[in-house]
TrEMBL record, chain A:
<comment type="similarity">
    <text>Belongs to the complex I subunit 2 family.</text>
</comment>
<dbReference type="GO" id="GO:0008137">
    <property type="term" value="F:NADH dehydrogenase (ubiquinone) activity"/>
</dbReference>
<feature type="transmembrane region" description="Helical">
    <location>
        <begin position="80"/>
        <end position="100"/>
    </location>
</feature>
<feature type="transmembrane region" description="Helical">
    <location>
        <begin position="12"/>
        <end position="32"/>
    </location>
</feature>
<keyword id="KW-1278">Translocase</keyword>
<feature type="transmembrane region" description="Helical">
    <location>
        <begin position="328"/>
        <end position="350"/>
    </location>
</feature>
<dbReference type="GO" id="GO:0012505">
    <property type="term" value="C:endomembrane system"/>
</dbReference>
<dbReference type="GO" id="GO:0005886">
    <property type="term" value="C:plasma membrane"/>
</dbReference>
<dbReference type="GO" id="GO:0048038">
    <property type="term" value="F:quinone binding"/>
</dbReference>
TrEMBL record, chain C:
<dbReference type="GO" id="GO:0015990">
    <property type="term" value="P:electron transport coupled proton transport"/>
</dbReference>
<feature type="transmembrane region" description="Helical">
    <location>
        <begin position="656"/>
        <end position="676"/>
    </location>
</feature>
<feature type="domain" description="NADH:quinone oxidoreductase/Mrp antiporter transmembrane">
    <location>
        <begin position="138"/>
        <end position="417"/>
    </location>
</feature>
<dbReference type="GO" id="GO:0042773">
    <property type="term" value="P:ATP synthesis coupled electron transport"/>
</dbReference>
<feature type="transmembrane region" description="Helical">
    <location>
        <begin position="121"/>
        <end position="138"/>
    </location>
</feature>
<keyword id="KW-0812">Transmembrane</keyword>
<dbReference type="InterPro" id="IPR001750">
    <property type="entry name" value="ND/Mrp_TM"/>
</dbReference>
<dbReference type="GO" id="GO:0008137">
    <property type="term" value="F:NADH dehydrogenase (ubiquinone) activity"/>
</dbReference>
<dbReference type="Pfam" id="PF00361">
    <property type="entry name" value="Proton_antipo_M"/>
</dbReference>
């Protein structure tokens, strides 16, 4: 009798689909005409992203099924993150089609790595076994290390890749050591088995050390202070569409793991580390962003700040209360929607060799490319948290939950921070709309029209941001369902 | 008792070799230190009753991988490393921080060991095989994706870019 | 029969106008743009009138009328919908905003004629109307907040309308950032409401609040919520200490100043407080704070207004001062008086701004009053309408400003709503300062009037730029009819608009107060009988005494207005050498006031500099310091990884690892301490 049934395969269907498409992309690459356009590979990869979305859709029909000897769990939680990851992947792939050609990046490996990376991220959100989570985390991390270094003609890209790799391995070491201590303390690495054991109380104090170590490792992946130091350098050096991808999808997956470890496994003692990390991330991120002249670095700091807001929701989560957790889940989706779009605009405007990434290069954009400027303005307003955008509701839920949980200090700090943040996002809008570019009339500067795939990607991101801002209820309900499943 | 004494001896050797690995300026010396680290680790596994893992450790790490390392170093004819710029932050904060981490973990480990007793997990090939191809089948299979990515990374990053 | 008012039409019409002009306007003729830009708000006003006529006929139990549009969000038991809420208060606001707004739109057709980006201007203006109407009609705080932020955004777009003008861009940014401070309070207030009432719906919250006692003993929950909401209101309504953005906002085109920064948006804070009156009335402490802030703002801004020479800045400080009056009215629990003043102020201040715009238009962009003078003859229509506005704001009977201001002064004198916090001394102080402000208002407005329209023309023919170079610099000329029409209508409203609320003491019946009473009353029931905030109901004999007192106070306020006029006449008409001499005598004091008490500089030193300093430290010493070392080192565009890696200095990788290790050590030590306890 075969102990692995069809149900088991369904639980990893999206991952299977992505891996299959990754292989197909690699196999097809040699057959694409030499010197010709590499776009067909990109479209194939996009198809893979959509297929994984469809596979997730299929999974959603039978939520809460376990597979592979309780290694993975398909529930509303995993489905939510699978959808976010698949959509981000799709949008980022669409946005990279022209970029890859423009920057002469090896297309086959690029697309395949994106797809394989997504396999790891998907597994991170559905795995309930720390060993599997670790392997998935490594897949996701290593593929992003390589992707960060794919601008082979540019030194800072290689530098970014190496920095990310060395520091990332350092952080992964912490996570792995945490897993092994957890096993030492509880005799199991299954989150679903750890939970009841810890809940029963009277556990080994080693658990605290294990949680601390895992928190350090995951803190690095989500770029929360004080483990954020790598972010600006890596985002600056990595190819812009890769940043669009890696600042959202692996981060969402890492947040999913953190949610599982902290809440599904019912681990103790995380409150103050999360509190302090949230406060530090918000403050250091926003202060760091204020004076940046490079838009990629600015958004890197902004992403640190957003990780901080997200951690506020973590701190606001209490047992048997879904408010904080669902706020965090909603925030992940909203943040993914707006940030992916913002980096795609950067990728579109960067030009060959990413020469135009200074904020000053955006001067007069509203006249050169009104639609792109308007999209970026909207995404930045969403990052500020202006109503009618996803960013507003995300912050609203988070801080509302924080105040419900009596985190007065953190709420006030967060609101002050989002006030400071308005300044630097606004600066970009001011530059785009109210300043003239000295070389405005020169030919060839950023005059390339947006291509159709880029346009579609940007539109999707803008629409998602608006959807989450105007009609947030549906996604919020899904987030609440996900939170309920997580605590089940 | 005997076990404990042996364990301490090999643990000390392991740590000393690891430090030596970092301290050596010539790559070949570092590689040789690494072999010592791997070897003593294998012995530690053996002392813990994980015979299979110990054997695998010797065959794969000390054997295959280290041979590859040494060959690569020889073929590339790598010379002495230059010392790169040091960092004030690392010396002022980093090194003490690492010391503190080690001390704190040592403290908590000495206070209360894990609940598992030695011998609870007999690491024979049969048990390992059953775990690996049944309960942990998925992680085992997924590792292939990891390896594939690692190979691709090596290819992508090491290949000389055509102009 | 159930009447459906179709309230959704009112905000949607301007939105449609904005969308049409914004998306298609580039290809349309100016005429078509103007028709769209004015037509849609016009239709909204027309529908608002229909709504008003139907509303009056609604049976009592259907007020407040709510119109449910869409479900919006639900989290747990908390729910907020997209729904509209119409009661007497929102109806008044609705008519003021659509009516005055429409007139200003019409005026803009002429004023912006020669400016570029005509379609964009109207698109933004209509967008502003949409958000403002959402703010007014919202049935919960969250939807109100959407409008609240939206008007801020539209205002930001419109201040920065003169693109490529650095000062305008900075002013827009300043307005936005300062308002974020206010939003901070508003949001916290909302979070507290959710936490304790699990709702943001006005009806639910006010019903829940009605079970709470008045917090006379000390500060409680309602005081906290009220004070936080008040912080939001001080931002939007430009009160101390957050008023600093409004004078700078005058960088925008004059119709924008009239619409947003005088008549509508800045009154949103007043509206919000009046809307939240059940909360505020239960917190004497919050009321006192509101009253004191309003009163101080009124006199503070009035003193600055006396020294400014830019015609729009005088009006800006005057607006802040008048908003202070409204704030104070809310603070003494005389919400209807505050809204009454809001309405009359919308009339005469919009008029004054539009007249100022007409003057600026006539002088081809000149805004400095020192370079004006004697314009009475050249632009008679502007002169006469502005005269109506000036007398109205100065508080001469029987013009609009007289009645509303008088009502506030009387309430400040007579209210007992603050008794649990302070004795009658507070009333007298508030009243005295407010009276003094009235005198100052009269002085600086007539100063403006004399400087602009009387004496000799001091402008010369030196060309002045700023408001479009399209106007050739020739002698002053009257504005076209499309600009004068709104002036005349607003002048009529400024003259007669106050008759809606003639107080009892002057033989009227104060219909305005009675109309709003249902909105306010529900809360003033919280006050013990006889202590009613809305309308004191004393015994017959006392009534007689009160009436005499009220008449005496009225006489006093008319008196100070006349004195203000007298001084202005003396200084700026009769003895024109006097101002210079007085200035010389006052010396440093005068300079301090003229330089706006150095508040901007103070804020800069207190808030901006430290943040920028810290940021610089992070940027220059940590970020750039580390990065430059590596990036420049590797900047020689090496083509191979091996090359670049060799060149790369790994110093900062070590630093980064050091930081991570430090953080990790802190987390681990803390957790182990926790575990070992």
């Amino acid at each position: 009798m075969n102990p692995i049934t069809n149900t088991d395969y369904v639980t990893i269907l999206p991952e299977l689909v992505l891996a299959a498409f990754g292989l197909i992309v690699m196999l097809v690459e040699p057959f694409v005409t030499k010197g010709g356009s590499r776009k067909p590979l990109g479209y194939l990869a996009c198809l893979g992203a959509l297929a994984s979305l469809a596979a997730t859709w299929y999974q959603a029909g039978s939520p809460y099924t376990q597979g592979f000897f309780k290694m993975v769990l398909v529930d509303h939680f995993s489905v939510f993150f699978h959808v976010v990851i698949a959509l981000v992947l799709f949008v980022a792939l669409l946005g990279s089609l022209d970029y890859v050609e423009r920057q002469h990046i090896r297309a086959g490996e690029f697309y395949a790595l994106m797809l394989f990376g997504a396999v790891g991220m998907d597994l991170m959100s559905s795995a309930t076994e720390l060993v599997l989570i670790f392997i998935a985390l490594e897949i996701s991390s290593i593929s992003t290390y390589i992707l960060a270094g794919m601008r082979r003609r540019v030194a800072i890209s290689a530098e970014a890749s190496l920095k990310y790799f060395l520091l990332g391995s350092f952080a992964t070491g912490f996570f792995l050591y945490g897993v092994s201590l957890m096993f030492g303390a509880t005799g199991t690495t299954s989150i679903l088995a750890i939970g009841p054991q810890l809940h029963a109380g009277g556990f080994n104090p080693l658990v605290f050390a294990a949680v601390a170590l895992m928190f350090v490792g995951l803190g690095f992946k989500i770029a929360s202070a004080p483990f954020h130091v790598w972010t600006p350098d890596v985002y600056e050096g990595a190819p812009a569409p890769v940043v669009a991808f890696m600042s959202t999808a692996p981060k969402a997956a890492a947040f999913a793991v953190l949610l599982r470890v902290l809440f599904a496994a019912w681990t103790p003692g995380w409150f103050w580390p999360v509190w302090i990390s949230a406060a530090l991330s918000m403050t250091l991120g926003n202060i760091g962003a204020l004076r940046q002249t490079n838009i990629k670095r600015m958004l890197a700091y902004s992403s640190i700040a957003h990780a901080g807001y997200l951690l506020v929701a973590f701190a606001a989560s209490k047992a048997a209360d879904t408010a904080g957790i669902s706020a965090a889940i909603f925030y992940t989706a909203a943040y993914a929607a707006m940030n992916v779009g913002a980096f795609l605009v950067i990728s579109h405007l960067a030009g060959e060799g990413e020469r135009f990434v200074a904020i000053d290069d955006y001067a007069g954009l509203s006249r050169r490319q009104p639609a792109v400027a308007a999209s970026l303005a909207l995404l930045l307003l969403s990052l500020i948290g202006i109503p009618a955008t996803g960013g507003f509701f995300a912050k609203f839920y988070v801080f509302s939950a924080a105040l419900q949980a009596n985190l007065v200090g953190l709420t006030i700090l967060g609101l002050i921070n989002s006030g400071i943040a308005a300044y630097y996002y606004l600066r970009v809008i001011v530059v785009m709309y109210m300043r003239e570019h000295p070389a405005e009339h020169e030919h060839g500067h950023g005059a390339e029209r947006i291509t159709i795939p880029e346009g579609v990607a940007l539109t999707l991101s803008v629409l998602a941001t608006l959807y989450l801002g105007i009609m947030p209820n549906r996604v919020l309900q899904l987030a609440i369902e996900a939170a309920k499943d997580l605590l089940r | 008792m005997m076990h404990t004494v042996l364990f301490i001896i090999f643990a000390v050797v392991c740590v000393a070799a690891a430090i030596n690995l970092l301290a050596q300026r010539h790559p070949i010396n570092s590689a040789l230190s690494l072999i010592v680290v791997m070897g003593s680790l294998a012995l530690l596994y053996l002392l813990l009753g994980a015979e299979f893992v110990a054997a695998v450790q010797i065959i794969i790490y000390a054997g295959a991988i280290m041979v590859l390392f040494v060959f690569t170093i020889m073929l590339l004819n790598a010379g002495e490393e230059e010392l790169s710029k040091s960092s004030r932050v690392a010396i002022v904060f980093g090194v003490p921080a690492v010391a503190v981490i080690v001390a704190a973990l040592a403290y908590i480990l000495s206070r209360g060991a894990g609940t598992a007793a030695l011998g609870d997990f007999i690491g024979g090939p049969k048990e390992i095989g059953r775990l690996l191809f049944r309960d942990f089948l998925l992680p085992f299979e997924v590792t292939s994706v990891l390896i594939l990515i690692a190979i691709m990374g090596a290819v992508v990053l090491a290949r000389r870019e055509e102009r | 029969m159930t009447t459906n008012l179709h309230l959704w039409l009112i905000p949607l019409l301007p939105l449609a106008g904005a969308a049409l002009n914004g998306l298609l306007g580039r290809g349309l003729s100016k005429r078509a743009v103007a028709i769209i830009g004015v037509g849609f708000p016009g239709a909204a006003f027309a529908w608002a009138l229909v709504v008003a006529s139907r509303f009056v006929a609604l049976p009592f139990e259907r007020i407040p009328y709510t119109e449910y549009i869409l479900p919006w969000i639900a989290a747990g038991s908390f729910q907020a919908n997209i729904a509209f809420y119409l009661d007497q208060l929102s109806l008044v606001m609705l008519l003021v905003v659509t009516g005055v707004g429409l007139l200003i739109h019409v005026y803009s057709v002429g004023y912006m004629e020669h400016e570029g980006g005509y379609y964009r201007f109207f698109a933004y203006l209509n967008l502003f109307m949409f958000f403002m109407l959402m703010l007014i009609l919202a049935d919960n705080y969250l939807l109100m907040f959407v409008g609240w932020e939206g008007v801020g955004l539209a205002s930001y777009l419109l201040i920065g309308f003169f693109f490529l003008k650095q000062s305008a861009a900075n002013a827009g940014k300043k307005a936005f950032i300062v308002n974020r401070v206010g939003d901070f309070g508003f949001l916290l207030g909302m979070f507290l409401l959710i936490r304790h009432f699990d709702s943001l719906n006005f009806a639910d919250v006010f019903k829940a609040v009605s079970h709470y006692p008045v917090e006379t003993a000390g500060a409680g929950l309602l005081t906290a919520i009220s004070l936080l909401l008040m912080v939001g209101a001080t931002g939007k309504s430009a009160q101390l200490p957050l008023y600093v953005w409004l004078p700078d906002a005058m960088e925008g085109p004059t119709p924008v100043s009239a619409l947003i920064h005088a008549a509508t948006m800045v009154t949103a804070g007043i509206y919000m407080i009046a809307r939240s009156n059940p909360l505020f009335s239960r917190s004497p402490i919050a009321l006192t704070v509101v009253a004191v802030i309003g009163c101080l703002t009124a006199i503070f801004a009035a003193t600055i207004g006396m020294t400014q020479t830019d015609i729009k800045r005088v009006l800006a400080y005057s607006t802040i001062s008048q908003l202070g009056y409204m704030f104070m009215a809310c603070g003494v629990a005389a919400y209807s008086a505050g809204i009454f003043h809001l309405m009359t102020h919308a009339f005469f201040k919009a008029l004054l701004f539009l007249c100022a715009g007409s003057v600026i238009h006539a002088l081809s962009g000149e805004q400095d009053m020192r370079r004006m003078g004697g314009l009475r003859k050249q632009i008679p229509w502007t002169f006469w309408t502005m005269t109506a506005g000036t007398f109205a704001i100065a508080g001469f009977p029987p013009l609009a400003g007289f009645f509303s201001k008088d009502e506030i002064l009387w309430k400040a004198w007579s209210t007992t709503a603050l008794r649990s916090v302070a004795g009658p001394a507070l009333n007298y102080t508030l009243w005295t300062l407010a009276l003094l402000t009235a005198g100052l208002t009269s002085f600086y407005m007539f100063r403006l009037w004399f400087l602009t329209f009387f004496g000799e023309f001091r402008g010369g023919s030196a060309d002045a730029h700023g408001h479009g170079d399209a106007h050739a610099s020739h002698s002053p000329h009257e504005s076209p009819g499309i600009m004068l029409g709104p002036l005349v209508l607003l002048a009529i409203l400024s003259v007669f608009g106050g008759w809606a609320g003639v107080p009892h003491a002057l033989g009227g019946s104060n219909r305005f107060d009675q109309f709003l009473a249902p909105v306010i009353q529900s809360s003033s029931e919280a006050m013990s009988a006889g202590q009613r905030a809305g309308e004191p109901q004393p015994e017959a004999a006392e009534e007689h005494a009160e009436r005499n007192a009220e008449l005496a106070l009225t006489a006093a306020s008319v008196g100070v207005a006349a004195i203000g006029f007298g001084f202005a006449w003396l200084f700026y008409f009769k003895r024109r050498d006097l101002p210079a001499r007085v200035t010389a005598v006052l010396g440093g004091i005068y300079d301090t006031v003229r330089d706006k008490y150095y508040v901007d500089e103070l804020y800069h030193a207190l808030f901006v500099r430290p943040i920028v300093g810290i940021s610089n430290f992070f940027w220059r010493d940590i970020d750039v310091g580390v990065i430059d070392a590596t990036v420049n080192g590797a900047a020689h565009a090496s083509q191979d990884v091996s090359d670049s890696l060799r060149r790369m200095q790994s110093g900062n990788i070590r630093s980064y690892a050091g930081w991570i290790a430090t953080g990790a050590a802190l987390v681990i030590v803390y957790m182990i301490w926790l575990g070992a306890r």
